[in-house]
């Protein structure tokens, strides 16, 4: 019963292709905003 709970409710392990996607996203350069208003103008 505990194994079934673990598989259905708890977070499953990340698939390798998803991990690679996260690595690519992490390497991207982001845009910094000083305020919410500046973000809205963008």
Give the secondary structure arrangement, pairings included:
Blueprint: H1 2-8, H2 16-27, H3 36-41
Radius of gyration over alpha carbons?
A: 18 Å
Runs in which pLDDT lies below 50 for 5 or more consecutive residues are none
Compute the average pLDDT: 82
State the helix count: 3
| Beta-strand residue percentage | under 5%
Task: Let me know the number of strands.
Answer: 0
Largest sheet: none
What structural class do the secondary elements suggest?
Answer: mainly alpha
Span between N and C termini? 51 Å
Fraction of residues in helix: 55-70%
Topology as a string of helices (H) and strands (E): HHH
Task: Estimate the global geometry from the Cα principal axes.
Answer: elongated
For this entry, give a set of tags.
mainly alpha; 42 residues; 60% helix
Describe this structure as you would to a colleague.
The protein has helices at residues 2-8, 16-27, 36-41. The chain is an all-alpha fold. The protein has a domain at 13-41. The protein is elongated, with a radius of gyration of 18 Å.
Short account of what is shown:
This protein has 42 residues and is mainly alpha-helical. It contains three helices and no strands.
